[in-house]
Specification:
This protein is of the alpha+beta class and 595 residues long. Helices cover 34% and strands 22% of the residues.
């Protein structure tokens, strides 16, 4: 039988338990409110009061790849490691059986050096030097740029006074291949040139943050984390074929050294698209070790140099004459190897000959300065100037390359008596490799000038693909003029003195050379015996697919543009093989040199 006295304690117990549960429930609700429901607000409050901590989340810089996705530039995780000089010294360890073993400081330094690639004595010196400045020093750099494997081995030593900080570093797997195009990064992660700079907006990642609160023991308090995620940089895809680029890099290196030139370049363009498939230079730069190259070798001379193009400009002048002055490949002029014109200008040919009746085709085949000068009298100078501007001379290229140069053509009003004729054969004005290449796309591909392209796209971290805006092709000459110019330039390759050097069995080839004197910047006069030589050409001549240009700055073993012929022949042969261009099945039209 239950009495009042026994019921009372039970009731009190139930009431107490109910109160306790209610209090606990209140605490739980409040805890959920603080750490879950309104966690972000409270974390923000604590951070503003300096009660929290934060960690930067790094956005990785994007990669640069070639047209097939092969990596040319990428970011890798490396470690910058440091020492605590005050605590650096002997290390106590335990063996597998639990025995305590002490390793002396010199031996520990040797172990560290064996991992980092330093001598043990050098590691000891780092510590000694730091303590000499400050006996209580807690910081000294051990070595920067260590790999993940090296970092792990250092941590396995269990020293307690070695610490490493992760750092993103730029790596270029192909070394100097395309180095002049890619550019490089500064030690502080700043883009300093080339495509690294030009495409910096696409490549740069966006850092994020992880904020949190920690307890007294340093452990992160669960539920206090708040993250603003990092965003990786995009991937820049180029039009370059890295295998072809490698071949051209080797080829121009050999040609520069064989001819003892100062430098040289090989550029390959897909005529139908304007895509640059290779842009090789020598000397070049390895972006992995920039300081190993001279400062002037760290930029792209293809894009940043101007030069007098010499007789390659006869192709532009001949196009203007056919298109704008009613001339044809078989039109003729009568000239000798040394001509004095009515205005007093004097023009000479490189080879001696008597009075001859040259055709326009013959003028280009023999590269007669006198002949093209005489022909140039048949077109108004202002109209010829307009054609040069339409060809793009002096306007740069459509490629947004840092420091890109532009050629220079003075207005006709500033042409003196000599320049009136000099400009017909590529002197008294300047251009660049991209300008010349783009102009020749118009000459050989139906009269339409194709803007050059080097960057295919930027693929952002979220998968969005952005394609650079490229100007539309523009008409410079008629399709008929272009067809006649293809015949002329093919006859140059067939009948010029260097024809055997550029011949590729099974293919119809077209070429034009240029040998231009170099101007001394100090005096403004031409330097004796120094030339800038160029060879530009396309194949197949009956259906142009690829354009190749080879330049040499001051070749000395051979000082004419025939110095470029061996490299041109090998370069074009490799291009035709790489892209499996079918051999020609038709015969060329042979044009007469003389009337």
């Amino acid at each position: 039988m239950t009495t009042r006295s026994t019921r009372s304690p039970r009731r009190r117990t139930v009431v107490v338990l109910a109160v306790v549960l209610a209090v606990l429930t209140g605490f739980i609700i409040r805890l959920v409110d603080i750490q879950v429901v309104n966690a972000r607000e409270h974390i923000a409050d604590s951070m503003s009061l300096g009660l929290g901590d934060a960690k930067k989340l790094y956005g990785t810089r994007g990669s640069i790849v070639d047209d097939s996705g092969t990596t040319l530039a990428t970011s890798v995780l490396q470690y910058d490691c440091q020492l605590d000089p005050k605590n650096a010294g002997k290390v106590e360890r335990r063996t597998a059986d639990g025995t305590k073993v002490t390793t002396s400081w010199p031996d520990v330094a040797d172990e560290i050096g064996a991992i980092t690639g330093q001598a043990g004595a050098d590691v000891q010196k780092i510590v000694a030097d730091a303590k000499a400045i400050d006996p209580n020093s807690r910081f000294a750099y051990l070595k920067k740029g260590l790999s993940t494997e090296q970092y792990r081995k250092l941590m396995e030593l269990g020293t307690g006074f070695v610490a490493c900080v992760p750092a993103q570093k730029r790596a270029y797997p192909n070394g100097a291949v395309a180095g002049n195009l890619l550019g490089f990064m500064g030690t502080d992660g700043t883009a300093l040139g080339g495509l690294e700079l030009a495409e910096n907006q696409c490549l740069t990642g966006k850092d994020g943050t992880l904020t949190f609160e920690k307890g007294k023991d340093g452990v992160i308090i669960p539920g206090t984390e708040s993250e603003v995620p990092a965003v990786d940089g995009g991937t820049v895809k180029l039009t370059i074929d890295s295998d072809l680029q490698w071949y051209m890099s080797q080829l121009i290196s050999e040609q520069v050294q064989d001819t003892q030139a100062v430098r040289g370049t090989i550029t390959v363009v897909d005529i139908k698209t304007g895509k640059i498939k290779a842009a090789a230079e020598y000397p070049t730069v390895d972006p992995n070790d920039v300081t190993a190259s001279k400062p002037d070798d760290r930029r792209s001379h293809i894009f940043t140099d101007t030069f007098e193009p010499g007789s390659t400009f006869k192709g532009l002048t001949a196009s203007s004459l056919i298109d704008g002055a009613g001339q044809s490949p078989t039109s003729t002029v009568q000239v000798s190897d040394h001509m004095r014109f009515a205005n007093g200008a004097v023009v000479s040919d490189a080879t001696s000959h008597g009075l001859v009746d040259y055709t326009l085709a013959g003028v280009l085949i023999d590269s007669s300065n006198a002949g093209i000068s005489k022909f140039s009298e048949r077109i108004d100078p202002n109209l010829r100037y307009d054609y040069l501007k339409k060809f793009g001379i002096g306007t740069g290229s459509a490629v947004a390359f840092p420091g890109q140069a532009k050629g220079l053509i003075h207005p006709v009003s500033k042409w003196d008596n000599q320049m009136l004729y000099d400009t017909a054969y590529g002197q008294g004005l300047t251009t660049t490799v991209p300008e010349l290449m783009s102009a020749y796309t118009a000459i050989v591909d139906g009269g339409m000038k194709m803007p050059l392209r080097l960057v295919e796209s930027c693929t952002k971290a979220d998968g969005t693909v952005v394609t650079p805006e490229t100007p539309a092709p523009t008409r410079v000459i008629s399709a008929q003029t272009s067809a006649e110019m293809r015949e002329i330039l093919e006859n140059v390759a067939m009948q010029a003195s260097y024809s055997k050097l550029v011949k590729i069995p099974g293919y119809r080839i077209a070429t034009k050379t240029g040998t231009a004197q170099q101007v001394d910047p100090g005096t403004g006069r031409y330097r004796a015996g120094l030339y800038f030589t160029t060879m530009i050409g396309f194949a197949p001549a009956d259906d142009p697919q690829y354009l190749v240009a080879v330049t040499l700055d001051s070749p000395s073993t051979v000082r004419s543009s025939s110095a470029n012929a061996p490299a041109f022949q090998k370069a074009m042969t490799q291009v035709l093989k790489t892209y499996r261009v079918m051999p020609s099945t038709t015969a060329p039209t042979v044009l007469p040199k003389f009337g």
